[in-house]
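As described in the Methods, two query proteins were run sequentially through the folding procedure within a single session, without resetting any intermediate state between them. The first query and its resulting structure tokens are shown here.
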Amino acid sequence: MLSPKGKFIVVDGIDGSGKSSLLFHIADYLLEKGLDKNRLLLTAEPTDGLFGHEIRELLKAETDPKANARKFLDLYVRDRREHVKKELLPALVAGKIVVCDRYKYATLAYQSAQGIPVQEIVDLHKGLPVPGLALILDVPASIALERMQADKRRAYLEKFERVDFQEEIRGVFQRMPGFFPGENIQVLDACRPLREIMPDVKKLLDAFLP
């Protein structure tokens, strides 16, 4: 694998934690600091590719959050490997700053909650790019669900978007630094509004980026 020259940032957490909003706030901050927009890539998983499409169809069709754990694991890992090959790694090798909504941390949280052993999921991600900074947004599942229900753009809730299951996933996200020792994983209190979270995020970004 080529040695990346760019910087890789991930925003992750349970559904409704505010990942997408934070991603755009990060982009705005980096551009305000003078980053050339051509050196910034905003991306997300699951992707719009074949595997990402299949994931979305399954999420809409199923209701049991524990069902099809291995199928979901296989699809998420295949989608991620394709994402790395086609978009993430080329951007990093080109020296870009990549900010991604969801990555391997989500797969570990969701699929381990479905019953897949943690170490098996960790092993499947060996050899993939390691983020230089991962921001995990921590919020109680009940609050996250209220946010999702208030979002007029959401026509329905997916199979994983149940309070009991999301709270289980939240517990895994809270322990994420222990699953990937040596990685720069920061768990942030996302009960706060974004305007209160951003000062903490800016400090982390300033320390990570030259």
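Immediately afterward, the second query was submitted; its sequence and tokens are:
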Amino acid sequence: CRSSKILCSLMFIIFWIYRPVVILEIGVAVLVAVFLLVYLATRYNPPKDPLFYVFAEFSFTCVIDLTSALEYDGYTSGFMEFYQKTGEPYLGTPYAIMMCYWDGIVHFILYLMLIHRMSNRQQYRTLGLFWAGSLCANMIVFVPGIVVGKNDSEINPAFWLNMPFLLVPIWGAVSLFSRPRDMPLVGASKAEREQKKALIWRPLDLLFVVYLVAAMGFTIFRGLAVLDCPLEILNRYVTEYEPYLKDPVGFPKVMMLLLLFHALPMLGSFAYGLCTPGSTWMLDWTVYFAGAILQCQWSHIGASLHPRTAEMYRIPIMTLVPVLLLNLLYAVGPVLLALRCKREPDYFLSIINCLIGTTVFQWVPVNLVIT
């Protein structure tokens, strides 16, 4: 009789734990517990920037994401099985697996670097913007993709655990963008020389403008493809080159629409900024955009090659090389542009005249009023 009571109790506990609502409650409790641990560990020397708590909290979830991806790919077993079944089953889609790899490796490294720089009172604004762009793009594709794709029937209460990871990086991006840029006053002679040069005498910038125009065309092309435009060339491209664009999971379609309506205007703005001296916003937005595009392309390319993707939606072997080259160029170009802007910012700096009559260039924050 006693053993039967114990068995019934165990069955009740197992049934209770595997309820979808309980998975959500446990997830919230774990996130709160991790935050409290970080808060208590730093209470005698609290960080001045609340983003410290964000990075510490999210670094914990990176380990969970990496474990999930490894388990779906068969490298581990038994760690995430209960959550995969009753929590977020769509994490088993190829796109989500590649997204978890990115979060578990790249984002984890970024969090460690950001926490290290914060602790040593070093500058971290640029690195933070790259993180914000990456995570914002990650979640803006992931969350709507779950809802509009074929996995909409698998949405459980644990789906709402994604909301902090969607909203917090948006707040983080706004916070980082609103902070003054770290740039000392220096002589403006070099900046004046650079800003007087026409685009044709700046071959690297000219090359970037050509790249940006080509990237805009590629963005429009793929955006029309997922919108079922009847042009023969689009149908042929989807059939012979990137059939993953038609995968019913929803993620590729949401990503192409995100690129069409958000990345396309930014690509055009960057081309304008390379032709217009004093465009200080280029120094921030290129970094943010580089993080977003790199994350999107990693997940897109990886998912289109992943063995869990149905064979009819994978990149055909015959066209593998050109498709990979196109997607890699699309991913790497914004990163190179961001590096160009950060390493040689002279062309983008605002030139002002000091009261003493010396011409200098200064990195002017948006919220700075000069009297």
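The first strand starts at residue 186 and ends at 187. We note this only descriptively and draw no conclusion about the first query from it.
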